[in-house]
Amino acid sequence: MPVNTSTPPFDEVWDVLVVGFGFAGGASAIAAYDAGARVLLIEKMPDPGGISICAGGGIRTIVERAGARAYLRETVGPDVPDDVLDVVAAGMAELEPYFRDLATVNGAEIAVHRRIANYPFTGNDAFGTVEVLSIPGFDARTEYPQVRGRLRGPNVFKLVHDNVRARGIETRLNTAAERLILGANGEVLGAITRTNGEVKRIGTRRGVILASGGFEAAPDLQRKYWQIRPVLPVATRGNTGDGIRMAQAAGADLWHMWHFHGSYGFRHTDPAYPYGLRVKKLPDWTPQLQEPDVRMSWIVLDCQGRRFMNEYQPYIQDTGHRLLDQYDAQSQRFPRIPAFLVVDEDGRKLYPLGQTVINDRSVEPYEWSDDNLKEVGNGILKRADSVEELAALIDADPATVAASLARWNAAVEVGTDGDHNRPVGSLFPVKNPPFYVGELWPVVSNTQGGPAHDARQRVLNAHGEPIPGLYEAGELGSIWGFLYLGAGNLAECFVTGQIAGKDAAAQQPAALPSELTAA
């Protein structure tokens, strides 16, 4: 739509506009500022951090480049160009000095650990992680009280946040980008933003960087690209695909829209509670190299009472949802949605079965109980005093449920899961009543799809040509097109943010015209 030109076409003009303040947006803003650009960083939510701040906090780095390159090719899939993969790999190898430089601002303690990757591809031993162990005087619950997650994600965000503040980068919360502003030839010259109802036209001389995350909270986009449904978000309601929609309106091609990082989890019994609750995270492992020796207290049954999966896959938080994605054309249903987590009394006592991971001050975070009894009381878990009662709770044939439990317990007894090859160290019986059952649903931690991009993080159109003035960073249009590398999105946020910020800042300033179009 045309922009009203009866008044000056822009309310403000900046060199670079960064949309979204998580890890990728922060890294983009810092890089552009350090390269000499005037930067405006906006975030539509009342608090910064996005999904990033909920992360475990390990940032994947490379310690042996040749081996890592081979592994990365297997995980990103065939459609990521070599030069895009190469530049990300090169950036991952430089993350330790990058973080040590950021740490000079607030004295953060940085450590690097060797950490094997998740799948048995060549080069899986070529990786490590950078971690922000601590920051003097920082308490996450005090500074970011809206966040529930794992310990070190807030540490990493605090480091980024302090670097943005130290540079004096203009940052506006509660400010959403709604449309991109295009020039006569389709070049991006800014964006229309809204802050508490106030609309502004922000002009950009050098570029707009979309770092607005994915579409974890956009059911309409999920219905377009995913067969599996419903999928429950677990971290934020802010990621509604804004960057995808704006980029599409400017002509962007999309990739990896099918791929999301997620597991299975619980649905709160209060329909007003907007988030799923992830199943307990157990340590990741690598087939053929590093099997876990951690007891998993549950098994998973389908709606007919049959066990159908290895509940403890190498990276359950990434691929756990995939085994639920089966459509039965004969019955016209998804027989594994919901599926059913089943434990016995001993398993109920072992550890909390669920966890909360959110960044949302408008919601009182659900706190899972240590002994799972609160969840029995509120109905997330239901108690059955016999196999027959258990079968009734999942509306399945008692004989089928009894056979599934008997077969599982026999496998535990001999120490081999012949049906689904679950790691031996994780086997745990389900035989001592009462039993407890909870509905399991697909949950999404983060999506990987979005606009396709080149090695300079420039957004590409359907012909593979860069859209002038438009960049992206982070999980928006991620390279992870097949399997996820644990801690890889965090690395990608910082690597691609640096690339996008530097490249945008290096552009010749655009001459902003008086006639404009909003995409």
Automatic annotation (TrEMBL):
The FAD-dependent oxidoreductase 2 FAD-binding domain, residue ranges: 15-489
Keywords on record: FAD, Flavoprotein, Oxidoreductase
Reported cofactor(s): FAD
GO annotation terms (biological process): steroid metabolic process
Pfam family membership, one: FAD_binding_2
Example of a GO MF term: oxidoreductase activity
Name of the protein this chain belongs to: Succinate dehydrogenase/fumarate reductase flavoprotein subunit
